[in-house]
């Protein structure tokens, strides 16, 4: 099991703490926060550090401004929301001028919570520029990474500073790594992984890694079609390129654990009438938008007899009432099952769980998207490596 040096039992009294968070949160067109989970989940580390008479300097990115200032992506717009959610005053540090940033931090008292404006306004963040890393490190005495959602990135504020300052994993980061690794690694008699998403290429390493410890891997969402083509249940079509079909064929030949639903809810368009079809009836013009009741019954049985379940990728277009039954049934059976591990992650999966108000029934819901997938893949992550005991 991967373990990082945590912050509990550490004495940070009188220290300046650089705290990496993932505040890259979904915002509506009119600037409203659509999901505040990542902010709420950061609160335990912030509180723990500030209770020890420290200065906490939060660093995070939002969006992909590519090294340039963008008023839309400035944390200035969200400061009062952050203050309400964290129940703390925050001093925003604009750092167009690095010396000014340092002056602001040094001039205020211990017990102050600072927030550096979007770190990706600086070119040096994503390029791991050594001067920029030195500057960031000069702001603090210790580095704490609690931004689990960014742990797969090799950037200045993630891996760079960790090489120059004494470094620790925050409370959320430790929890994420522990819960996800346990679910992947623990031995179980029966275990089910549910994987969706559109690109098979991205999922091969995950399927390979999860096959080591899971009995069943259920394919859902956009991957269903190429897998049905690979098993010759539906004819090849222009919709899917040959590479994907060949990859699906290879996975099916090498992996008897794969289950592909073959009764599906289709329609010619997302607003069209739903039609229940067996794989052999699916035509080129039919889009697969959900899983049919027979295939769902098999999936439900697998889930209900599982000791551990991991899920990434909703099976259908759950926002549309015509195509939400599959997602709802999968969530209901996860809720009903007695599995010791019920772990889910990824933006649309978490949104689906929220949509059906089932959050509390999971043992762990990850705040990570790409980071969650990287752990499922068993990938070597530099961001974790630099925090190891
Ligand atoms: C995420 O939302 O997955 C993380 O914040 C990483 O964002 P990125 O893909 O822009 O690096």
Characterization of the model:
There is one protein chain. The chain is of the alpha/beta class. It folds into 2 domains: 16-173, Rossmann fold (3-Layer(aba) Sandwich), CATH 3.40.50.1260; 186-377, Phosphoglycerate kinase, N-terminal domain (Rossmann fold, 3-Layer(aba) Sandwich), CATH 3.40.50.1260. 36% of the residues lie in helices and 15% in strands. It is built from 16 helices and 15 strands. The protein has a 6-stranded parallel beta sheet, sandwiched between helices. Helix 9 packs across helix 15. The chain is elongated and about 70 Å long. The model has no long low-confidence stretch (mean pLDDT 95). Residues 22, 24, 64, 149-150, 153, 369-370 line the site of 3-phosphoglyceric acid. 3-phosphoglyceric acid (3PG) binds at residues 22, 24, 64, 149-150, 153, 369-370.
């Amino acid at each position: 099991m991967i373990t990082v040096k945590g912050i509990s039992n550490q004495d940070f009294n009188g220290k300046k703490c650089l705290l990496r968070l993932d505040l890259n949160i979904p915002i509506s067109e009119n600037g409203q926060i659509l999901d505040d989970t990542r902010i709420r989940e950061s609160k335990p580390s912030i509180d723990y550090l500030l209770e020890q008479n420290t200065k906490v300097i939060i660093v995070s990115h939002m969006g992909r401004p590519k090294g340039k200032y963008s008023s839309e992506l400035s944390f200035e717009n969200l400061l009062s929301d952050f203050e309400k959610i964290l129940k703390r005053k925050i001093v925003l540090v604009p750092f167009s001028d690095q010396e000014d940033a340092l002056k602001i931090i040094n001039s205020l008292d211990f017990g102050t919570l600072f927030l550096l404006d979007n770190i990706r306004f600086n070119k040096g963040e994503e390029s791991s520029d050594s001067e920029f890393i030195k500057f960031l490190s000069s702001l603090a005495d210790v580095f704490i990474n609690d931004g689990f959602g960014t742990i797969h990135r090799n950037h200045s504020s993630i891996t760079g500073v960790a090489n120059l300052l004494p470094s620790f994993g925050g409370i959320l980061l430790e929890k994420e790594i522990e819960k996800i690794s346990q679910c992947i690694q623990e031995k179980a008699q029966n275990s089910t992984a549910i994987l969706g998403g559109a690109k098979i290429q991205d999922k091969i390493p995950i399927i390979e890694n999860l096959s080591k410890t899971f009995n069943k891997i259920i394919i859902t969402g956009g991957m269903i079609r190429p897998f049905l083509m690979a098993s010759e249940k539906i004819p090849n079509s222009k919709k899917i390129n040959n590479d994907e079909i060949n990859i699906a064929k290879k996975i099916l030949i090498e992996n008897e654990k794969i289950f592909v639903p073959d009764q599906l809810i289709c329609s010619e368009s997302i607003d069209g009438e739903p039609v229940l079809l067996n794989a052999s009836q699916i035509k080129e013009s039919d889009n697969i938008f959900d899983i049919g009741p027979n295939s769902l019954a098999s999936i439900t049985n697998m889930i209900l007899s599982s000791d551990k379940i991991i899920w990434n990728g909703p099976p259908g277009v759950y926002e549309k009432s015509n195509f939400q039954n599959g997602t709802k049934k999968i969530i209901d059976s996860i809720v009903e099952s007695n599995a010791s591990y019920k772990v889910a992650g990824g933006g649309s999966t978490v949104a689906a769980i929220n949509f059906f108000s089932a959050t509390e029934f999971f043992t762990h819901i990850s705040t990570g998207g790409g980071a969650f997938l990287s752990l499922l893949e068993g990938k070597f992550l530099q961001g974790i490596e630099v925090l190891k005991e």
